[in-house]
Amino acid sequence: MAERDAITDPWGARTPYGPGDSWPVRVDSHLADGVRAEDVDRWVPSAAVLHSNGDGLEIAVKDGRIVGVRGQADDRVNHGRLDPKDLYGWQAGASPDRLTTPLVCEGGRLVEATWDEAMRRVVTRSRELLDEQGPSALGFYTSGQLFAEEYYTLAAIAHGALGTNHVDGNTRLCTATAAAALKTSFGCDGQPASYTDVDHADVIALFGHNVAETQSVLWTRMLDRLAGPKPPALVCVDPRTTAVARAATVHLAPLPGTNVALMNGLLHEIIRNDQVDHAYVEKHTVGYDDLVQQVADATPERVADICGVPPEQIREAARLLGGAERLLSTVLQGFYQSHQATAAAVQVNNLNLVRGMLGKPGAGVLQMNGQPTAENTRECGADGDLTGFRNWANDDHVAELARLWNLDPMQIPHYAPPTHLMQMLRYAENGTIRFLWVSATNPAVSLPELARVRSILEQDRLFLVVQDAFRTETTEFADVVFPAAIWGEKIGTFTNVDRTVHLSEKAVEPPGAAKSDLDIFLDYARRMDFRDRDGEPFPAWHDAESAFEAWKKASAGRPCDYSGLTYDKLRAKNGIQWPCTAEQPDGTERLYVDGKFFADPDYCESYGRDLITGAPTEPDEYRSMNPDGKAMIRPAEYLSPHEMPDEERPFALITGRTLYHFHTRTKTARAPELQRAEPEVWVEMSERDAKECDLEDGDLARITTARGAVQAKVRLREIRDGVLFLPFHYGYWDTEATSERAANELTPTDWDPASKQPIFKTAAAAIARVEEDR
Amino acid sequence: MRLGLALRELHRSETSLAAFLYEVSDRHRVEHEVHHVARDLAGWSRAHVRDLAEAGERYGLSLRGTAPESSGLLAPVRRKVSELTGRRAETGLLLLADLRRLHRRTAGVSLDWELLAQGAQAIKDHELLELAQRCHPQTLRQLKWSNSMLKTLSPQVLVSG
């Protein structure tokens, strides 16, 4: 078993392979100092929880404590490999500063309390507000890091038992656009492709997807293809010269906020060169003519002016995309968190649709996720969708859900789309949401325009419940804090980007009085005494496995069908892709293999939205546009970003993830190796820009926007001129500083109208040296 | 010919719609989606005004090719008031009233496009018909937007406060 220093060698040794071959196994492992593999008492199956890749692993347990991890050699996702965060991140669980008891706010301070006392306060306030205002006073904001059983339970409590429309996950910040883009093109969420497509592709196009840092094990798969015979060509779209860009055949570095223009230019070229699979388009899609019309004048020259990318580069990229025989396209935050997010991500779907590159080995689209269990947030209905990819605008779907839950259909709000997070925040701001329950996320660092976010969370009139493993910037505003058990301390299933379901077993006991999120939600439900139509306690389930069985019933017949899975089956073979049914007991590698989609008007999850205005499409309109449930080619015009650099603020600011940290570092900063690797926020800029601003590598600079300021050390990097990059992980819990550290001090409150995902990658900024420095 | 009248009326209603979209945008600065999307959609109306002025020349009309790009001198005041009152639930009713007004004005513009297209067909003016066929769908999208915002935001306003 190889042990490497994953900080200096994040991707490890190459195991080259050729097209169509199986990716060789390489088992990565890390154990605590002094522990040898033969000392380990038990190896407990799970999967990676600090990114979205879903790498299968085993947790090493000795004397009731987690002492390390090793990759699962036979797991379909990673073939044994683990990334730096997996190898070191598990140490956070044993931190001495874990929350071990509930806290309640007394005289402005959080003090320890019993579960009875903390729950009593939450239940009392819930009841008061239900009496005064009804369910519209209550909102729930959850995570992309809980398990399916927990999201399903939360969805049942919020949408069902309470009947509030206000439920969302922090997936809003990372994958809402993935879901929206899939719904727009295919009528339903659900990842078309599979990671195994990397094994077959001859061109891999990465759109705003810095896979080397966000899903580093998937990147090792690509690196191994690149090192083998007949390597694929890479097309990379990213304003930064990342490791992916350096390995790419063509690297396009557009100005932030211009992705739609760039995509239209690429589509223009592919159509002009007639590299369109007309038979596929004719048979399986609607809307092609609209696309032809929309991109007719998006010539490389015209697009070059908007994006700041040379026309010959656009032509070269289009030649590669248009000539590919097996084209795998992937998309992430460079598109999702930027201006016109859904419109841009949908153009990637359009690219694969017009090229007929879907549903066969090496040909597909991966609209990526940012968090390990984001897929579950979406499919279980804890994120502004209805459970099981049901369509809120289809009364039959709502009636079906009501039957499952044995509730009146009117009890489940479906008069409008479920309220997305940014709108919930607005309701909290104007005082009409008065109770907000936050689980496993940290909005006081992760949301845009933090000064505003803090001013909302700190209001006395807002009753804030926070459920987490640690005290965070957000718990400090709470009325009640629940201590939560985390990964390794509870059992449940979770599903990665390419629909692979893993069972994560309990390895150790949670500290002190901490409980699983599932047990906390169920405890609340029992104390609230929720009942179904027959007067039976609701939800009817009582633990993880019974919740999973209930969720299977809710998913049966829907695209995300889990009905063929059981805990025992996953114990025998962990990592199975949904849909998994009696007919397809081993799961499903690719969706849409036969050009059949989930887009039938009676079956689809969504009738779609206008990509510019965000207005939902009416059912009748959808039915006449797409009566046969084909894939939908939806064009979009380019609009200028809402905030453009100007003389006062000449830079476009983008924020993003880094290799060694996750979310707001609640776990990764508590793993010594990861913390030492990147302990402090920095800002990246080009050498030319630095010179013009009289800055040098290592200088302390102050970056300002109309919202606030951040101080960070300058790193000179290959990044396009005119662009600044700040990592978004850093907040205030581990520093003396009380301001000017979190990237979101700078970001605007603005979101994509179609996916409602906040825009983190177009803000006008200025930068200057902090005077006392040097 | 009365077609000139229809053109002039549409030009007037599109110009005023653009101005009103900016006004709504500024008056509801703290309703971020309304604020931003209203400005994007004002861009469509401004483009329509430009195209209508061009078309008007053929009918001997002298119409301004430019519609306002902001809600005018009062814009900063409107934004400030929005920020100062943004924490009160009552502003929700003002928002609904404005969206309702916006919806009705947009419906008026849509009808004007309908009339223009009918007239253009009657005199076989291909260019004018093409203009209507290009612009009217955007007006309909503006109309669906105000409708959907009303539908989405009204439940919270109506049951709280």
Automatic annotation (TrEMBL), chain A:
Lineage summary: Bacteria, Bacillati, Actinomycetota, Actinomycetes, Pseudonocardiales
Annotated 4Fe-4S Mo/W bis-MGD-type domain residues: 41-97
Cofactor: Mo-bis(molybdopterin guanine dinucleotide); [4Fe-4S] cluster
Superkingdom of the source species: Bacteria
SMART domains: Molybdop_Fe4S4
Official protein name in the record: Anaerobic selenocysteine-containing dehydrogenase
Entry similarity comment: Belongs to the prokaryotic molybdopterin-containing oxidoreductase family. NasA/NapA/NarB subfamily.
InterPro entries: Asp_de-COase-like_dom_sf, CT_Nitrate-R-NapA-like, MoPterin_dinucl-bd_dom, Mopterin_OxRdtase, Mopterin_OxRdtase_4Fe-4S_dom, Prok_molybdopt-oxidoreductase
Assigned keywords, A-Z: 4Fe-4S, Iron, Iron-sulfur, Metal-binding, Molybdenum, Nitrate assimilation, Oxidoreductase
Renumbered residue ranges of the record's region Disordered: 1-20
UniProtKB/TrEMBL annotation, chain B:
Species in which this protein is naturally found: Amycolatopsis magusensis
Domain of life: Bacteria
Record's protein name: DUF222 domain-containing protein
